[in-house]
Amino acid sequence: MTFAATVLTLYPEMFPGPLGHSIAGRGLSDGRWSLDTVQIRDFATDRHRTVDGTPAGGGAGMVLRADILAAACDSVGYDRPMLAMTPRGTPLTQARVRELAGGPGVSVLCGRFEGFDERLFEGRPIEPVSIGDYILSGGEMGALVLLDACIRLLPGVMGAPSSGDDESFETGLLEYPQYTRPVEWEGRTIPEVLRSGDHAKISAWRKRQAEIDTRSRRPDLWERHEGARVQSPSGARREKEREP
Ligand code: SAH
Question: What integer is the mean pLDDT of 76-104?
Fold first, then answer.
């Protein structure tokens, strides 16, 4: 089955862009996923092909018009999830990416200027999604990020199918640190345990490092991880076992 991606944008020439290369690019030419773009401006109704207006209530910049965006979205339809890129959206997670990758595809609406007329989200089944707490100049980079995250999970796209499993976030933790040759670089050596060949020791070390790094770099993830562990029966048991 082909994962069908449609991007609605004022800059269709930005696609496939980086998704035409490497793993995603190979997946595209192998037909694991397909890409369509829709030029939002084609749905403008005036001579000047206007897609935006000044913000109601005043303020800087321009706002994309709900009527024109809705016409563009309606032309694609809502059989597949329709996501709109906006910093006001629900933050994208690996769990949501997995769900999307398991479905028939996704449509992604890209904003520009000050973003979308809010009524679009009331009038159409469109999910507002953010790729992080920072502001981009347009939704196109966000769409590339979202699609890349989905595409690498499609069957047959990634070389070794197992290499997705203990990646950062899949376990609720960051991944453990990785090393490769040379064994010594600028006086720093690869941790001894990784060269021991003792698989039980290696996996215990990796688990511990993942915990240490998550705790210091991502206290938010760590707190959620710990919360889930203490609440689950096996987690509660483990907590007890640790008591003196
Ligand atoms: N005024 C808006 C930001 C507009 S940025 C606000 O403060 O909420 C212009 C466009 O870039 C947005 O419409 C959106 O499509 C895209 N964009 C910017 N930051 C983004 C983010 N963190 N996640 C997803 N899309 C983003």
Answer: 98
